[in-house]
């Protein structure tokens, strides 16, 4: 009895109950398809998040001053003066010999204001900073010019604005460059417009006006000689950890304390990326596990239907045994049927899964992973063998006379 | 239902000792029997009750014999046939098939014995549904490992022998009862077994089909095959050379009708 013979007999058996066979196949199909699509959605959303984090610039470290989020390490008893981020710190961090891995340092002093242009108003974030901020924050100029060092030293009232501000305050098509708008009590002239940047969270990064920090401290945030944060840019993303430790030791020195006691928080974009990667991996595994359960349910469907088939065809089994079918032939016949069901389900599931992964699902563009396709298919076939074995073995172990007498 | 379940033997009195009839070979030259049953018993458990279907049957069948087994329902003839066909195993006693004790054979070998040595014909034909006549006949050959082309040729030859070659590709439900039984006989002889066992092969057939089937059995017997068939129709039994009668799980009589053997076609002429 060749395996081809088995396949032919099994196909004939399956064909005799088309509806039942196709429903069983559907169970496996849904399982395999779900695994492939859900893993693709997980991978896709993970990649999307990582791309957004990369868009932030993977070579920047944000140094947060004390009290900014209330997360600074507690100061020791001997330390009476709260450490702050000052313009002097900015100068120290830009020292090439002390901090060879640091490319730029941009102080940030930001506040929320109501921007007005005539009758139009909008709530904006005003960021007081230096010219390097735009590059470090992965912004790009769409039109006009960046801030300059002389703007900073001269306290010039100029602003580079985001596209949300432009669309909120200006009519469509109007050129905002050269216009004067009010940021709270401060009147600034728009000198540049930023290109639209992707959102990293709930905040709109384009609802922003970037002005020299000197101007901001004069008129908006109040002169305090300290910044809420510093954006430190390393020379490359591989230098980011070196840049972080250099920045930490310089700031510790400036504040007469140790690195561990330094009351600043360092947000390293690189570590943010790896954290999100592992989070998303967990998420993907979870999605895959949920889908795998449906594959298991599909397998139980195969077992169920094979048990029904064996019961239904007990007499046929008896006849086959009476004319000399050995146990192995009966086992092979029913096992082949189960495996054919799971194979068809697996192939159809892969087709559905691959096709389904080409559509956007809940705002995520799924990314197919070969591994999930191979695994889902393999598990489907294994499920067919596993759940098909018990019914097949039951058929093969029947005594011929009992099978023949079965009604 | 080809084989009725064993019915309760209502006889309470056990048979007297020595009631078993050891049948001596009917002819002189000592030939080894194809079938040799020695004190075969078969007890079925039906819940709490034990039912003895066979209570010590001994029987020898020599090669080339044409034997009919008769008896009322419940006499144990079907049980005996199932044991002869290696479909069932006796509770005690010895069954030598071609001199080999079948109790010693494992399942795989028994399957091969059923496949090569024995051709079994059932009362209810037992063709596999939705499978053409020729495919049914090919089945034992497939289990015997015969290649596809030779299998088809041999199946067609077997159908030719029973006069059903023209309906080879019909499904069982497209065949009449007589045709289905002829297909079943073709399946039984496909692997060219030396022993044909038939459990009431004409039980579900009309007179005409009965003649056809008995003609085939007579011809198979003339070709040298041993044929044992169960019947409760005396006119069918009369066509055989030897009639074994069972009652209550024991052999009641074993008579040779040698010399009075009629050709099946004579039956209808009466």
Explain this structure.
The complex is a heterodimer of chains A (407) and B (270). Chain A is built from 13 helices and ten strands. Chain A is α+β, with helices and mostly antiparallel strands. A six-stranded mixed barrel of chain A has the order 2-3-8-5-7-6, surrounded by four helices. In chain A, helix 2 packs antiparallel against helix 9, helix 2 runs antiparallel to helix 12 (370-396) and helix 9 packs parallel to helix 12. Chain A starts with a helix and ends with a helix. Residues 67-81 of chain A have low confidence and may be disordered. With 270 residues, chain B is α/β, with parallel strands linked by helices. Chain B has helices at residues 77-84, 107-116, 133-143, 148-161, 177-189, 207-222, 234-237, 264-269, and strands at residues 35-46, 49-61, 66-70, 92-97, 100-101, 118-121, 195-199, 226-230, 242-247, 250-256. A six-stranded mixed beta sheet of chain B has the order 6-7-8-3-9-10, sandwiched between helices. Chain B is globular. Classes of the chains: A alpha+beta (407), B alpha/beta (270).
């Amino acid at each position: 009895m060749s395996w081809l013979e088995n396949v032919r007999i099994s196909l004939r058996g399956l064909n005799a109950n088309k509806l039942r066979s196709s429903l069983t196949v559907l169970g496996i199909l849904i399982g395999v398809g779900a695994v492939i699509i859900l893993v693709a959605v997980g991978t896709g959303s993970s990649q999307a998040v990582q791309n957004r984090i990369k868009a932030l610039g993977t070579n920047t470290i944000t140094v947060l001053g004390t009290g900014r989020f209330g997360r600074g390490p507690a100061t020791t008893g001997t330390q009476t003066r709260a450490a702050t981020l000052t313009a002097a710190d900015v100068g120290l961090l830009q020292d090439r010999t002390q901090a060879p891995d640091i490319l730029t340092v941009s102080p940030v002093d930001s506040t929320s204001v109501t921007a007005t242009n005539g009758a139009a108003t909008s709530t904006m974030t005003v960021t007081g900073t230096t010219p390097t901020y735009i590059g470090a924050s992965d912004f790009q100029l769409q039109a006009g010019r960046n801030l300059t060092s002389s703007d900073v030293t001269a306290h010039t009232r100029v602003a580079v604005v985001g596209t949300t501000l432009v669309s909120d305050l200006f009519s469509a098509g109007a050129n905002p460059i050269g216009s004067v708008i009010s940021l709270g009590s401060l009147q600034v002239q728009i000198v540049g417009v930023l290109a639209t940047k992707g959102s990293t969270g709930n905040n709109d990064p384009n609802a922003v006006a970037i002005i020299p920090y000197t101007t901001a401290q004069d008129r908006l945030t109040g002169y305090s000689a300290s910044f809420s944060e510093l954006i430190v840019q390393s020379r490359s993303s591989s230098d980011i950890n070196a840049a972080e430790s250099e920045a930490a030791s310089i700031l510790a020195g400036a504040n007469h304390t140790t690195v561990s006691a330094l009351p600043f928080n360092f947000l390293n974009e690189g570590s943010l990326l790896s954290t999100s990667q592992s989070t998303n991996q967990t998420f993907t595994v979870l999605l895959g596990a949920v889908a795998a359960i449906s594959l298991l349910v599909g397998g139980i469907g195969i077992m169920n239907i094979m048990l029904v088939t064996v019961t239904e065809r007990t007499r046929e089994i008896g006849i086959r045994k009476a004319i000399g079918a050995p146990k192995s032939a009966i086992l092979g016949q029913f096992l082949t049927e189960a495996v054919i069901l799971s194979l068809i389900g697996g192939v159809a599931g892969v087709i559905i899964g691959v096709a389904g992964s080409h559509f956007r699902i809940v705002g995520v563009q799924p990314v197919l992973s070969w591994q999930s396709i191979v695994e889902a298919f393999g598990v489907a076939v294994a499920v067919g063998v596993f759940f098909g074995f018990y019914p097949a073995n039951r058929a093969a172990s029947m005594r011929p006379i009992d099978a023949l007498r079965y009604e | 239902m080809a084989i009725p379940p064993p019915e309760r033997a209502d006889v309470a009195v056990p048979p007297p000792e020595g009631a078993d009839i050891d049948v001596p070979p009917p002819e002189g030259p000592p030939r080894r029997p194809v079938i040799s049953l020695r004190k075969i018993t078969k007890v079925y458990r039906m819940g709490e009750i034990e039912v003895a279907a066979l209570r010590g049957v001994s029987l020898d069948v020599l090669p080339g014999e044409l034997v009919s087994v008769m008896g009322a329902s419940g006499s144990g003839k079907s049980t005996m046939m199932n044991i002869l066909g290696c479909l069932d195993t006796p509770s005690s006693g010895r069954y030598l098939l071609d001199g080999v004790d079948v109790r010693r054979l494992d399942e795989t070998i028994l399957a091969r014995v059923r496949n090569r040595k024995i051709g079994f014909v059932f009362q209810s034909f037992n063709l596999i549904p939705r499978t053409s006549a020729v495919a049914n006949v090919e089945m034992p050959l497939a289990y015997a490992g015969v290649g596809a082309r030779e299998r088809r040729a041999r199946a067609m030859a077997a159908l030719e022998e029973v006069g059903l070659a023209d309906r080879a590709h019909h499904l069982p439900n497209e065949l009449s009862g007589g045709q289905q039984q002829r297909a079943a006989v073709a399946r039984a002889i496909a692997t060219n077994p030396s022993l044909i066992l038939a459990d009431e092969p004409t039980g579900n057939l009309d007179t005409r089909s009965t003649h056809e089937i008995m003609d085939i059995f007579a011809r198979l017997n003339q070709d040298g095959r041993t044929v044992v068939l169960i019947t409760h129709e005396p006119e069918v039994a009369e066509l055989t050379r030897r009639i074994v009668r069972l009652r209550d799980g024991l052999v009641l009589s074993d008579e040779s009708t040698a010399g009075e053997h009629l050709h099946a076609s004579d039956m209808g002429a009466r």
